[in-house]
Amino acid sequence: MNTPPSPSAAERTDGTSVRIGALVPLSRPGWVEAGQHLLAGLELATREVNDAGGIGGRPLELVVRDTAADPLRAAETVDELARTGVAALAGEYHSVVARAAAARADALGLPFLCSSAVLDALTDQPTEWVARLAPAQSHGWRIYADFLFGAGHRRIAVAAQPSVYWTSGIRILRDCLAARGGTFIELDMVELDPADVCDQLVENRATALLLLVGHPEPAVSIVKSVRRDQRLAEILIGAPAGQPECTEWEKLLGDDGTAIPFLRYLPERLGPLGARVEAALRERLGGAPSFVAFEGYDTVTVLADLLRSHGADRARIAASWPRVAVEGTRGQIRFSRTPGISVRQWAWAPVQVVDRDPAEPGRFRILHTG
Length: 370
Fold this sequence. Notes:
Mean pLDDT: 95
Order of helices and strands: HEHEHEHEEHEHEHEHEHEHHHEEEEE
Low-confidence stretches: 2-14
Largest sheet: 6 strands, parallel
Number of strands: 15
Distance between the termini: 35 Å
Radius of gyration: 21 Å
């Protein structure tokens, strides 16, 4: 591995703390609720590390930066954090933002453990500097396609906006459908409004509509239009990227937001560690934690283990990804080289397809596991 110059441990920690840079979307147009859950997990794990004696007696410190879902801002933030001497980077939710951060981390020789972004091509070339906890998009979305086929859907439409992330998702879904003889209908939301979407669904005899669009808009408007169109009473609305999990979705859509399947990365039952962390996160957040909060907790747990074992030297941290064996909230975490994935990958966190229960919108139903 080509190792760029690295600040000394004393410079990196100002002689007092071992610091990790945390990239989190905490303002619009970022998905703020996801950012808050991610940060809650990061902070809870950091507090527990420090309660247990820190890193060799030195406190672990999170240096939090708001990416606001802006790739340029994230890249500049990575530069700033690298200059200030953090030992590693953690976090990020949005795939396009994480991709920008990963590129800079790779160029600067700064270890980055990506918590939640799923885009397969997180970097253009294989790198030893970046590892990831979240399942790759191709893995999770294929499981989602399995669910659709198992539920009998063969004519599937997607309402999509321009984005590297959405484009990647379209390609995965199209390939899965083509391999099974399904029909894929792409609806360009640059050209169409929600009423047009309804007409297109009827014309193409689609049985399912997937939302590959931003939240809250245009996702909320599309759902409202489809739900109120009597011609589409039987159509399934799906949102693989997970928009229905957030509480804002429930507030904006009420009953209209139920029975919309999405992906989340949790086991059917949490083990003792996961259950304890779930209770602590629930108290911290004032409500049920999303899987993103568990990803945040696991991120710091892994980095703290590396820091205890290998010190705060950046090159040694990155070289140690293959030796990680850490019990996380959702299973044992190990990183490997996975075909088609450019970073060290946990293969795999548990994957579920769930929805909000129409009889009790605050409860999630598990529809499929993979």
